[in-house]
């Protein structure tokens, strides 16, 4: 066509070719100017409906007037029937040519993307969707002005799309998932495509690739691109976060407007420029925006990647302790420093991959941060059990903050690619409804350990608080230097928190593997001890089979580190529930509470010990302290109801259990305690209905069945109760069933001889549930039986022992 004339346009040279036509440089012979002419393929030109749609859509696109959009001059038709578009022609190069398979400078890429987003914002405001944003459709003039090309082939929102015959509009590598599927698209498809273009500018290659178009489309729909910070150094983590948000599979999770994206890109561009200016002027703290600086710990250098996750806690504490965040840690996005904040909740992170195999990271990383920060007396950190009740509540943090009574909340997202870990964390001042800080980090899985090894001294520096030497030693102590051991420990705790037989047994396996990697890892021994102990506590295993193993594990933990509060509590639990060594158990609880006064679990279990020892006022005070420290913990709340029940404070017990059930109606412990309250109040039908509902839960256990049997027996429904006795007997032929389950049902019948026969068996096997029996049967015919007094004496509970009075530390 070179040398031909179409209408009044003389074709000078061919500029390019695409699926929708060929583009030429041409001379406008009327106005004596150079333009670009795009001629549609003949096959589309012969389709009358396609011609009408093209004319209608091109007319709408021609109305767009914006510095970053290529202006359309004319839509016309040559004498031979070929339709064409006349538009501005610019001196410069396409973005595809500018990239040329090589990364662009970060500042330049950010500027180009901001201009593209500005042009798209104008188009979207006019209800136009481009649908083919790619480097080849972006021109950069000699003055650096970005021009979006091919808006003449865009799709007005709500209209039928003009596409190539037999294909999908767009270029595979830059299509959004919904576009690749052929679904209905809106303006957010352009935001996805711009994210892909920006990724390519930073990486030098597209985010999704494949040998064939189908492979590319599969990758777009099902895979995530390689983290940019693992491909290239010096990439602002905030920029990677923006790109990840653009490339979210779900349009609802992307930027919702190109205007917002453009504003963020321009802000980041300014920060990059300001940082470069400060660096050239020699100003401290001017590393690249969003990139963590290196730090030294006990003479060892921790690299940028290793320090990344540490920066989460560091930046938190820089905020909480006052001071200038930029001086303390380069990078991160904030809106100004607040006054001192003294309360924090850390929610479980989102597992961005939805991969059950990596759930342990999204749970245990924030749990680890919680555990470490909670040791500071100047900062109130909500316990894990309360904070984790708000899993998935990231969208309404203000409400969560009110319920947890905290000023700030940390949320995050975790993504794993092989051995690479990407974490996005955001700290929000929920009272002021503003982001204090947000950052994304790319690191190796092994670097999680580096974070925990360095967090204590960073906390001290950031808060500028005066710590005793003992506190400083505890905060800076490293439990292990073995990264793999630590990861296995995190997996063990993750499974332990599932509170199921399978979970406990998996936890045992992981804790044992952690110990094999590091035989001096005290926390791993403590986790192993806890796992064995709860097998007995849940009635899964005979106490004599597991408690000795638990005792050996916790003894080793305390041999390694006697100041570990968790180990002291684990020891107290064994001394209390298996050895019935009440006074030594009390000492261990008090040691744990002295080490960590806000350790709600220690107070929770100690309160139940005090109840067993008939120190009722102390039991109530301690149990209520535990509930104040961890108000959303289901076990802590239900145990407080149990204390009220034992003291015959039925209205308080009923109200407390109801409160817990409102938080989680599937929590069996609270419902069985409530049913027992109703039994003691003579409300048998109400109690039985409650117990039947618990026994029908998918998570019901033999204990729940035994409670129902007791309810039937007390309520006069003997046939149903004896069926449950038969069911428990059949189970006992296959595996361990606590003898107290049988004793309680026979006691409900009033068959005391049979009941005491089972109680004696419970004594022989050190039944976990036997401890509470002497207190539970007080005031009943069974309690008046001489055999009850004899049992209490043999258990060391008559008279109740009393330790030397040592006051507990104050709790909130």
Give an overview of the whole structure.
Helix 13 (359-373) packs parallel to helix 16 (447-463). Strand 12 (295-297) and strand 13 form a beta hairpin. Mean pLDDT is 80; it is low at 159-169, 278-339 and 454-465. The strands form five sheets. Strands 1-2-3-4-6-5 form a six-stranded antiparallel β-sheet, with helices on one face. The protein is elongated and about 120 Å long. The chain contains 36 helices and 19 strands. Among the domains are: 5-88, Phosphorylase Kinase, domain 1, CATH 3.30.200.20; 92-272, Transferase(Phosphotransferase) domain 1 (Transferase(Phosphotransferase), domain 1); 295-476, Rossmann fold (3-Layer(aba) Sandwich); 482-579, Serine Threonine Protein Phosphatase 5, Tetratricopeptide repeat, CATH 1.25.40. The protein is an alpha+beta fold and 812 residues long.
Quick structural overview:
Helix content is 52%, strand content 12%.
CATH class of one domain: Alpha Beta
Poorly predicted sequence stretches spanning 5 or more consecutive residues: 159-169, 278-339, 454-465
Tally the helices.
Answer: 36
CATH superfamily of one domain: ABC-type transport auxiliary lipoprotein component
Helix content: 40-55%
In terms of structural class, how would the helical and strand content be classed?
A: alpha+beta
User: How many β strands by DSSP?
Assistant: 19
Taking the sheet with the most strands, its summary is: 6 strands, antiparallel
Indicate the overall shape: elongated
Strand content: 5-15%
- CATH fold description of one domain: Rossmann fold
The multimeric state of the shown protein is single chain
Global mean pLDDT:
80
What radius of gyration results from the CA coordinates?
Answer: 34 Å
| CATH-scheme architecture of one domain | 3-Layer(aba) Sandwich
Strand order of the largest sheet: 1-2-3-4-6-5
Cα end-to-end separation = 85 Å
């Amino acid at each position: 066509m070179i040398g031909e004339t179409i209408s009044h346009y003389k074709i000078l040279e061919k500029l390019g070719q695409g699926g929708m036509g060929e583009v030429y440089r041409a001379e406008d012979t009327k106005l004596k100017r150079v333009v670009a002419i795009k001629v549609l393929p003949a096959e589309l030109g012969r389709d009358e409906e396609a011609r009408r749609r093209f004319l209608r859509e091109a007319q709408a696109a021609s109305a767009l007037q914006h510095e970053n959009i290529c202006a359309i001059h004319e839509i016309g038709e040559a004498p031979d029937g070929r339709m064409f578009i006349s538009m501005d022609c610019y001196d410069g190069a396409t973005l595809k040519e500018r990239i040329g398979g090589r990364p662009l400078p970060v500042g330049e890429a950010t500027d180009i993307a901001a201009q593209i987003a500005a042009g798209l914002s104008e188009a979207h405001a006019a209800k136009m969707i481009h649908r083919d944003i790619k480097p080849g459709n972006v021109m950069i003039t000699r003055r650096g002005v970005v021009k979006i090309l091919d808006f003449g082939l865009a799709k007005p929102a709500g209209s039928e799309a003009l596409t190539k015959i037999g294909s999908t509009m767009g270029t595979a590598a830059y299509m959004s998932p919904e576009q690749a599927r052929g679904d209905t698209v809106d303006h957010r498809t352009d935001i996805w495509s711009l994210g892909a273009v920006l990724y390519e500018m930073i990486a030098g290659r597209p985010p999704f690739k494949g040998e064939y178009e189908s492979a590319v489309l599969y990758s777009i729909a099902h895979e995530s691109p390689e983290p940019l910070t693992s491909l290239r150094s010096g990439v602002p983590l905030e920029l990677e976060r923006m790109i990840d948000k653009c490339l979210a599979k779900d349009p609802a999770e992307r930027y919702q407007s190109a205007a917002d994206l453009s504003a963020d890109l321009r802000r980041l561009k300014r920060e990059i420029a300001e940082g470069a200016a400060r660096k050239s002027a020699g100003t401290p703290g001017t590393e690249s925006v969003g990139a963590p600086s290196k730090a030294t710990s006990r003479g060892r250098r921790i690299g940028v990647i290793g320090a990344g996750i540490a920066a989460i806690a560091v930046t938190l504490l820089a905020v909480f302790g006052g001071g200038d965040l930029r001086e303390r840690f380069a990078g991160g996005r904030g809106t100004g420093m607040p006054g001192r904040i003294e309360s924090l909740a850390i929610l479980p992170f989102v597992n961005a991959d939805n991969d059950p195999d990596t759930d342990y990271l999204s749970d245990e990383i924030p749990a680890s941060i919680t555990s470490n920060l909670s040791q500071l007396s100047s900062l109130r950190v909500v316990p894990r059990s309360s904070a984790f009740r708000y899993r998935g509540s990231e969208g309404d943090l203000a409400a969560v903050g009110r319920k947890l009574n905290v000023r700030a909340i940390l949320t995050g997202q975790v993504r794993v690619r092989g051995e690479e870990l990407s974490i996005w964390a955001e700290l929000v001042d929920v009272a002021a409804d503003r982001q204090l800080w947000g950052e994304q980090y790319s690191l190796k899985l092994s670097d999680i350990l580096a974070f925990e090894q360095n967090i204590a001294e960073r906390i001290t520096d950031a808060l500028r608080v005066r710590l005793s030497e003992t506190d400083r030693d505890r905060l800076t102590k490293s439990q292990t230097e073995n990264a793999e051991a630590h990861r296995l420990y995190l997996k063990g705790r993750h499974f332990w928190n599932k509170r199921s037989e399978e979970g406990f047994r998996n936890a045992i396996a992981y804790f044992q593997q952690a110990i094999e990697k590091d035989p001096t890892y005290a926390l791993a021994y403590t986790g192993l001890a806890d796992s064995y102990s709860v097998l007995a506590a849940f009635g899964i295993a005979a106490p004599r089979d597991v408690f000795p193993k638990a005792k050996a594990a916790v003894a080793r933990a305390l041999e390694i580190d006697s100041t570990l509060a968790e180990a002291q509590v684990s020891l107290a639990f064994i001394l209390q529930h298996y050895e019935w060594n009440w006074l030594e158990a009390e000492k261990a609880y008090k040691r744990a509470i002295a080490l960590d006064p806000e350790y709600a679990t220690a107070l929770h279990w100690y309160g139940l010990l005090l109840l067993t020892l008939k120190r009722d006022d102390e039991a109530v005070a301690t149990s209520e302290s535990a509930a104040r420290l961890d108000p959303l913990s289901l076990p802590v709340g239900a145990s407080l109801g149990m204390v009220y029940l034992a003291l015959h404070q039925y209205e308080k017990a009923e109200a407390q259990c109801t409160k817990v059930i409102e938080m989680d109606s599937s929590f069996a412990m609270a419902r069985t305690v409530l049913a027992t309250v109703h039994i003691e109040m003579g409300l048998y039908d109400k109690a039985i209905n409650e117990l039947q509902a618990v026994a029908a839960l998918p998570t019901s256990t033999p204990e729940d069945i035994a409670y129902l049997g007791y309810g039937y027996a007390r309520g006069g429904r003997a046939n149903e109760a004896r069926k449950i006795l038969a069911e428990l007997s059949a189970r006992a032929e296959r595996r361990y069933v606590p003898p107290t389950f049988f004793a309680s049902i026979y006691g409900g019948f009033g068959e005391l001889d049979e009941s005491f026969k089972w109680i004696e068996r419970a004594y022989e096997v050190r039944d976990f549930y036997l401890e509470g029996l002497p207190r539970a049967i007080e005031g009943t015919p069974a309690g008046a039986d001489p055999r009850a007094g004899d049992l209490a004496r043999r258990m060391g509970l008559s008279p109740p022992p009393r330790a030397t009075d040592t006051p507990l530390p104050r709790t909130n």
